[in-house]
Amino acid sequence: MKQIIQHLQTGETTLVEIPVPQVRKACVLIKTHRSLVSLGTEKMLVQFGKSNLLSKAQQQPEKVKQVLAKIKTDGFKPTFDAVRRKLNEPIPLGYCNVGEVIAIGTEVTEFKIGDRVVSNGHHAEVVCVPKNLVALIPDEVSDEEATFTVVGAIALQSIRLVNPTFGEIVVVIGLGLIGQLTAELLLANGCEVIAFDFEQSKVDLAISKGIKAFQVREQDDSLQIAKTLTKQIGVDAVIITASTKSNEVIAQAAQMSRKRGRIVLVGVIGLEIQRADFYEKELSFQVSCSYGAGRYETNYEQNGQDYPVSFVRWTVKRNFEAVLNAIAKKKLQVNSLITQKVAFENFQEIYSNIVKNNAIASILEYSEKSFSLQDSVQFHHNSFEKSNDILAIIGAGNFTKSTVLPNLKKLKAKIKYISSSNGLSASLVAQQFGITKATSNNENIFTDPEVSAVIITTQHNTHAKLCIEALKAGKHVFVEKPLALNQAEIDKIIDVYQQSGKTLTVGFNRRFSPFMLDAKKQLGNHNLPMNVIATINAGFIPSSHWTQDMSIGGGRIIGEACHLIDLITFLTGNLVESVVMNTMEKSPSLNTDNATILLKYQNGSTGVINYFSNGHKSYSKERIEIYSQGRTIIVDNFRKSIYYGFKSSGFSQSQDKGHFQQFKLWLEKLQNGGEAIIPFNEIINTSQTSICAISSLQKNTWVNF
User: Among 215, 255, 234, 251, which Cα is nearest to 169's?
Assistant: First the structure.
């Protein structure tokens, strides 16, 4: 199947072949009939892409601050590489999709195969969309009309925030697509609508619908018109749907408002507000977020949990349905907004001149003919000799692109597949790194006899399931930490692993750092007890991030602090005997990112892990202190080490090679038919330790194995 993407670095818009996405839990798979090009939004993305690096920086000053902060902590080259990767990452275009349901995920009961639906899916022949971002289309509404549903919901949400009463005077600034829909919906709500735009054609279109629309020629035109039409009282509310860098729009919106008026922003404008304008009239100002309640909420969108009508009347989906109902009853007439209709494969008729295009709405029409629904696409014709090290990678996220694949490329690894559930990210990565095939179906990997080993880099909650499936399929497995999120998953993995005869390696990479390998060498081969303190200045991550969700990421202790548990296990050469954990919270919680973990090892060694998220960014992210036999080793952020009481004084290097060493050793073991790099009992012990550290929050006692 094909999908339209846009390159942030160049602004180029292209059509790419990708595997058809797999239907996920609480989602539906939709075969697209029509999609709407929202020229305002998509024009901004193309303009941003076509601008030079300096202009991009000027448009995103907050991102520049983040880059400068990252340079201070990570250095110039890693920061430069991260920025370049981000700009090289294409994004899918489109969010107004109409089609028919062709597959239904688990926990979906409100749709059936063949239903005609609208969603916020991209410009693609097939899209997978969460059920709460999908709505049934009434029979009275055509496919073309239904494509306006999502942008209509954006307009409707701004009106709900204004909360106008019958007869109030509301101004709409900007008569692009969303402005036109906003003005018409306000009319249907019983409001008197005044609208402004610089282009006469858009003004004429609004006038034809009964809106008092005016072309703005001078900066103060709109202000004088609004004062005249309200007899100098001022308007009740202003909805801004324009896009401009100027601060003049917000100033005029305030000046034309009556005392205690309301202003809602939908577009993108300059926001240097004059305090006096707002203070004297006690104006309220609010920014409207997308389609309504539930947007960007993980439980609502990804998990399919709806809000009760009695508590949240207008969610995203219910706004979709309200717009469709308005179109069905002819209260919202959208056909006059359609500027052009273009076949999907001829998309460049729209995008090649989109920056200068003054059209309002363009429709992409998808062929009724059958097209490829293959879940695997071949991009390169690599020939692999029969060997023990033909790889497949499940997961095409940032870690795979920035760490896994660059290291495997240096090692000239043989990679036949890369997989992602949406198909797009796998396709882009396959093309970039010369991987033979991209797939959205992991069964293609598990059933291919040529594939001998699988690397798993997906979200944490999928690790156990994918490990078990890969081992059962007779593949060697390398899985990023953590191996599992709970004891039940560990038990299942142990059972399958012991029967498989294959190796299983967990991506605990700190032990492979040259700094730690040298520290281990300097300490010597003895079994005497030592003390190790690992302080992690982890940094703040919002609670909405997937790693903070215990059912998905497992929290930051299981998800990341496990690295340090493994490192101390490596340094001491012993297994953990007991563990206790204290947190900063007064009421112990299963999810924390401010904790101190105390480990007791079989030979008497102790390990302390201080995992904190409330420190300053400029301080080292990781600092390891080792105390043994009157000697001390300090490793600072894996960039510099200092030895006290040793002949060696330590060393430093600009870039840590821990991941590279890890993958190199793993590939060598595969080629030689060796055992897992880390003995499996040690993997299990480390995973159990991180899991038990969490459970000890409730017990507040030592946990023994």
Answer: 234
